[in-house]
Write a structure and sequence with these properties.
heterodimer, A: mainly beta, 0% helix, B: mainly beta, 4-stranded antiparallel β-sheet, globular
């Protein structure tokens, strides 16, 4: 699985099964071989993405899929078509692999992947309600941004922050310059992150893959593929 | 009591320091933004705002029309310069600044065995470890006493040079004991080591494989090597001695094949059959030529169609199964037989092995915590003829299985309890293992983390959710 999201409002968590092209919603606290409460799958769904995020306020699920982003009703079950699709040349979407939605500030943040000699990745910022061939509000990309690819994104609405795991060159087992970066919604262009937790012997990070936030305890939680574990950092200054 | 006071003082000092540092590390809004490396020992980078900051332009009197355009251009230039200075300052601050340590670390320090193979000639057993990225070689007869923390392996192959990461399939060359080890998901390379390799040694030979290889089997008679591909629900057959960018000899992929998230693979060379276990998740691939070949398969023949060639909306979740094909099967061939249904007890059937002498198929039934034994001729909703399962067996999420016909033993690699277990070939029911090799202390919990991609936080239960 390449993504998992907890919906605090409805006490559910969601994952994507990319092999079966399915979005699975489980009851919070599910254990063992408990079945999902909803499965979004079928010819009308057409989801080919591996990541997702859920907007519990407006009841929507967002799934990135290369050059498009599909939006489904949160409570959809079975073979349900998307209610919106962001797609077209103006969107600049390509290799869209990860995303995060902010239902408070109505922002959708999208991260690009990179494989081989493809161009470096990027972070794109859209309006939450965007539909069709729309231009992004901002595009963070370039050598100063340090972005090669983005694997998982979290947002922190109170401070309008984008928190992204940047694991570096996919083909390298321990790529140099991988980091956890934090940008703001106002950033645009070739902008370095405002805060950064880099890989290294002190942080013990090697290849940060996933990120989630625990605002109550002012912590950033990072899954690291090469550590094959999960690390929690206390960062009160961010929250 | 004195110690307690000191503790209180230190705590207060720590709190005060934290408050000061938090205040100092606050953002400078509207001015130069700096990348801050954050943490308990963080450096607080201080840089004055550029003198001609973006928002601090000299006001232009409304009455002064002459030169207004020039002033505006100068102001814009000034703003641009300030932005460049701001970015440079932020970028400069991002370099090598971290002294931060995590406050908590979830990590299993012990090996988690994922696959197993026996070298009967040299009396050794080889195990892959998906947790610490190692290949570990033990004496075949090693048996960890209950009082021991673990058994030290004779040899360990590990390190960046080895290209070992999430290894899930093993084969031992019966001619020379060379180790063939399959990387799943993250390193698209099959690595082959000399029998005596150890340490951070580069592989003797490498083969660049399609993405998501899992199982491996070799037919020594024809010198063909079979690999399953999880991600694209396919099987490829290479020359046994293939290396680098060599193409497969054959490809088995398509809706008719019955392949659906395939894992383990085993050969019955006597009958010319190949057995493949499937977890059940699959999507169809487009018909016709590959219009968008992956960069990974440029100019290669018999390469599987990848995710980019998936038919949108074709994804489906099928019951787990074992499909039986001819060893010569290719294209979108239908299986000779399918073992599938509730009587099979399949619950993530993963590693498989064949006893050609007795005509039996062994299945490492991951979630079922069992080893299932079938006849190689079984078909449909067949019940296993023997089941090794129960608290005495020490089986816990077995993902690898191996039949040692020289010593009449069956081996299991248990992913979730730091152990490999050995049973007599005829074992059935809740039987204690003949021997156990442990990689960690008895009762030390195994975390089961293997390739943690994303992560989520359940704020209601204050739990971290880690899918693999």
């Amino acid at each position: 699985m390449h993504d998992i999201r907890y919906d605090e409002l409805h006490d559910e968590f969601l994952v994507v099964n990319p092999f079966a092209e399915a979005v699975l919603t489980f009851r919070g606290g599910s254990n063992g071989q408990e079945s999902p409460v909803r499965i979004l799958q079928g010819p009308h769904v057409k989801t080919g993405g591996t990541r997702l995020d859920v907007d519990p306020v407006h009841n929507e699920i967002f799934v990135p899929d290369g050059n498009k982003i599909r939006v489904y009703p949160r409570e959809a079950n079975g073979d349900v078509a998307p209610i919106r699709i962001i797609q077209g040349p103006d969107t600049q979407l390509e290799r869209a692999e990860s995303l995060a939605v902010d239902p408070i500030n109505n922002v959708l943040v999208v991260g690009f992947n990179k494989l081989g000699d493809e161009p470096d990745g990027a972070i794109l910022v859209f309006n939450r309600t965007d539909n069709g061939n729309v231009k992004p509000k901002a595009v963070i990309r370039g050598p100063k941004s340090g972005i090669i690819r983005i694997n998982q994104i979290a947002v922190y609405p109170p401070k309008k922050l984008i928190v992204a795991a940047m694991p570096g060159i996919e083909e390298m087992m321990e790529p140099p310059n991988a980091f956890l970066g934090i940008w703001t919604y106002d950033d645009n262009g070739d902008t370095p992150p405002k805060w950064k937790i880099p890989i290294g012997p002190k942080t013990t990070l090697k290849k940060p893959f996933g990120v989630t936030l625990n605002p109550k305890n002012k912590e950033i939680i990072i899954s690291d593929m090469r550590v094959n574990g999960v690390l929690t950092f206390s960062v009160p200054e961010v929250f | 009591m004195a110690k307690m006071r000191w503790f209180v003082v230190l705590a207060l000092l720590g709190t005060a320091t934290q408050l000061v540092m938090s205040r100092e590390s606050g953002l400078v809004h509207g001015g130069a933004q700096q990348t801050r490396v954050i943490g308990s020992e963080r450096l607080v980078f201080v840089e004055p705002l550029p003198e001609a900051g973006g928002e601090i332009c000299e006001p232009v009197p409304a009455s002064r029309e002459a030169g207004r355009e020039e002033t505006l251009i100068a102001a814009l230039q000034q703003r641009q310069d300030a932005r460049v200075a701001s970015l440079e300052a932020r970028n400069a601050a991002s370099q090598d600044r971290s002294k931060m340590k995590p406050v908590r670390w979830i990590h299993d320090p012990y090996a988690a065995f994922s696959s197993v193979a026996v070298d009967p000639i040299n009396n050794e057993v080889v195990l892959t470890d998906e947790n610490l990225f190692q290949i570990m070689v033990y004496n075949r007869t090693a048996d960890t006493p209950r009082s021991a923390r673990l058994t030290e392996p004779k040899r360990i192959i590990a390190g960046l040079n080895t290209k070992i990461e999430f290894q899930c399939g093993l084969y031992i060359d019966p001619k020379n004991g060379n180790i063939y080890a399959v990387n799943n998901d993250t390193v698209d390379t099959l690595v082959i080591f000399d029998r005596t390799a150890k340490g951070n040694a580069p592989p003797t030979r490498e083969l660049h494989t399609p993405h998501g290889t899992f199982g491996i089997a070799v037919d020594e008679a024809t010198e063909e090597m079979f690999l399953t591909l999880q991600h694209d629900s396919a099987m490829v057959v290479f020359r046994k001695y293939a290396e680098k960018d060599e193409s497969p000899l054959r490809l088995l992929q398509g809706d008719a094949t019955g392949l659906a998230d395939p894992h383990g693979i085993a050969l019955d060379s006597k009958n010319g059959w190949v057995f493949i276990s499937n977890h059940g998740s699959v999507s169809s691939r487009t018909a016709g030529a590959d219009e968008r070949p992956s960069r990974r398969n440029a100019q290669k023949q018999n390469w599987p169609k990848g995710r980019a060639e998936a038919v949108p909306g074709s994804g489906r979740s099928l019951p787990p199964s074992i499909v039986v094909h001819s060893m010569k099967a290719q294209g979108n061939a239908s299986p000779l037989r399918v073992i599938q249904g509730p009587k099979t007890q399949f619950n993530w059937p993963t590693g498989v092995a064949i006893d050609e002498q007795r005509g039996e198929l062994y299945v490492a039934n991951d979630i079922g915590n069992s080893i299932l034994v079938f006849n190689v001729t079984d078909s449909g909703d067949a019940a296993p003829k023997r089941v090794i399962q129960g608290p005495k067996t020490n089986l816990r999420n077995p993902t690898g299985v191996w039949v040692d016909l020289k010593n009449n033993e069956i081996w299991a690699a248990n992913f979730m309890n730091h152990s490999a277990t050995v049973y007599p070939l005829s074992a059935s029911g809740d039987v204690a293992p003949l021997r156990i090799i442990r990689s960690g202390p008895l009762d030390e919990p195994s975390l089961g983390i293997g390739n943690p991609h994303p992560v989520a936080y359940d704020s209601k239960r204050e739990q971290i959710l880690v899918p693999n």
